[in-house]
Design a protein that fits this description.
Blueprint: H1 3-7, H2 24-28, E1 36-37, E2 44-45, E3 62-67, H3 71-82, H4 87-93, E4 105-109, H5 114-120, H6 124-136, E5 145-147, H7 160-166, E6 171-173, E7 185-192, H8 197-208, E8 213-220
Parallel strand pairs: 3-8, 4-7, 7-8
Antiparallel strand pairs: 1-2, 5-6
Amino acid sequence: MHLLDFFFPKFCLGCGEFGSYMCSSCFSKIHRFPYLKCPVCDRASIDGFTHPRCKKRFGLDRLISLFPYTAVVQKAIKAIKYRYAYKVTDDLLHYVLLPELPKQLAFIPIPLHPSRRRLRGFNQAEIIARVLSKHFGIPVRTDILKRIRKTVPQVDMKNREDRLSNMKGVFIVNKDIIPSVQQNTTILVDDVYTTGATMQSACEALKRAGVRTVWGLTIAQ
């Protein structure tokens, strides 16, 4: 047992059992999506790839969401985001097996606006990306994408059109760095995918800068 676990013991967010934030019993009750969905039309697709008929020039090429946003997964994400429980990410992703991925990859966490980053003290998307990096050996790049406009939190906006409008022109890319990943598959990482407005805005910024292939990866949807 780690010394910190002695002073700040872990309890399962599902059942309260001592030892971890996500016990194997509660994890086994989480229902995975029966199929992955096209990020454009939200219908079943093979491995989450965008349907050929749905493809857009600056749109996502694939979306992988690991869990449905229900029950204990909701509690885990809220703990990561609002209670500074970094280790929740480790325990939640300990059981995850990603589908087969190509070799040339880079994780790009969705960045927070600098003012929100200072207020919160961390970026939950970056935490998730670094845990995934540790598990799968894929590098994390935080030097490529930048958030330049502070927006109304998406969770406060219920209308899909408002969410899409809210995220227009929010991200820019570092054009000095972008050549290093243009030929790679870049994977945008975030906690939750709802309307996809944030992910799509970040994807558009990358593709306009010359990145050929952009996927999305979230904990839940």
